[in-house]
TrEMBL record:
UniProt keyword annotations, A-Z: Membrane, Transmembrane, Transmembrane helix
Domain of life per record: Bacteria
InterPro entries in UniProt: DUF1761
Organism: Luteimonas cucumeris
Protein name in the entry: Uncharacterized protein DUF1761
Pfam families: DUF1761
TM helices/strands, residue ranges: 6-27, 48-71, 77-100, 107-129
Length: 130
């Protein structure tokens, strides 16, 4: 993590958390719950554990992506790498799992779309904030 802007990593993790709140909230909550087979009125665990865990995992992903990009990545490279990581690594990996699990294309588009934007945001923040 030598030369990596830790504040930018933290901001990138926060951006994923905020994006997730919007994406899986007002934008796609009903569709996502339906496609995932989740009763939106039933608790899946303590919110602090769920949201805390999600933030820690976002922080780990942002830090790993920052190391991948290296210190002071050019903005265009960081954005392109973010889209590529989200779409070509994360979303395609989900796609493989979803095919074998018999999950819907709609669920894959929702989840894959989120992670594509998540890593694009990581690239934007890490590419701008050196």
């Amino acid at each position: 993590m030598d030369g990596i802007n830790h504040w930018a990593v933290l901001a990138a993790a926060v951006s994923a958390f905020v994006l997730g709140g919007i994406w899986y909230g007002p934008l796609f909550k009903n569709a996502w719950c339906h496609e995932a087979g989740i009763d939106m009125h039933q608790s899946n665990g303590h919110p602090a554990r769920i949201f805390g865990g999600a933030f820690v995992l976002s922080l780990i992903a942002a830090a790993a992506f920052a190391v991948f990009l290296g210190p002071e990545p050019p903005l265009e490279f960081a954005l392109t790498a973010g889209v590529a990581a989200g779409l070509c690594w994360v979303a395609t990996s989900f796609g493989i799992n979803y095919l074998f699990a018999g999950r819907s294309l709609k669920l894959w588009l929702i989840d894959g779309g989120y992670h594509t934007l998540q890593f694009a945001l990581y690239g934007l923040i890490l590419g701008l904030w050196h």
